[in-house]
Every structure is written in C-alpha cells, then in structure tokens.
Amino acid sequence: MLEWLAWFTRLDNSKVLALLLFFFTFCAILLYVYTGRERSRRLESYKYIPLNEDGGTAGRTPAGDGVSNDGRGRAQDPQE
Predict the structure, then answer these.
(1) d(CA 18, CA 6)
(2) Is residue 6 part of a domain?
(3) Which class for 19: exposed (0-12), middle (13-18), buried (19 or more C-beta within 10 A)?
C-alpha cells in the first residue's frame, strides 16, 4: 500500500513527477490565456504599453518637489 510513497520519495522519481506537473501547469496556463478571443486580444494589446516614459508627468511626484518617482512607488533622490 505504501509502496507508491516509497517510490515517490526517491529523488530520481520525484524530479520527473515535479517536471511533468510544472510542464502541464504551464501548458494549461497557456491554453487558458490564448484560447479566449477577448483575453487574447487584450493580452496582445499589452505589447504597446511603453516600458520607459521619458516625458510627461508619469515619473514625477504629485507635489512637484523635484524628486522623481521610478514607477514602482519609490522616490529617487535627484542628486543620485
């Protein structure tokens, strides 16, 4: 009865099982993302989001105190 547990505790067997588990999970996520027509369209539209904005007020703090925001909510000192 507990032979399958002893089989699973061997590192050679558990590596293969974990690899298969992660592979099928990855494939399931890909199928979920790309099978929905609206979801696929929305995902493809994300490639047009700019990664680095040079102008505008997106990288400034609301107070305008000269401290620039790096886009993740942390303020950077302008002297750096």
Answers:
(1) 16
(2) yes
(3) exposed
